Amino acid sequence: MEIDDLPVKTRRWTRREYERLVDQGIFRDDERLELLGGLLVVREPQGSRHGAAIAALSRVFARAFGDGFHVRPQLPIALDDASEPEPDIVVVRGGPWDYVRAHPSVPVLVVEIAETSLVLDRGHKSALYARAGIADYWIVNLREAVVEVYRQPAPSDAAPPGWEYRSKQRLAVGATISPLAAPSQSILIADLLPPA
Question: In Å, how far from its chain's centre is CA 94?
């Protein structure tokens, strides 16, 4: 990073340091931050389509996964020592009170809803999720009206954190998908996208 052609040193944060800052109330309530690879990243503002998609997906996934799973909209996950993202939807085993002492670290499904954040969600976040071993990562791409499904995380020299997904699918309205953790459930892609 450079400012006016002068090299600038940056400081990376650990997840524990970040959580202490949050616990101490250092950030304003309206600051939408997440820790990605040690960097504090400002989250994009949400439009009404984004908000409606979060509500719709929460309901769809609660039905599809049922008892024994918990749908967490826009809540942190403890990805690794340097990352605590807040995906739009996370599905984890157990119930809400199972995570009273710590954020979940082993989600069965991570979903980002993308309009303006598509480049970040496909690139840096995808690589971080792959490195953490997230087996099922979806991007609900509102711009192109498709759901992108990423599976089979694997090491890679091409991605900056050294990981990527080997399997990538783009599914449009008319298709269905089954989450890896709920293989008997078939979700209509149309239920994950706003009406045309």
Answer: 19
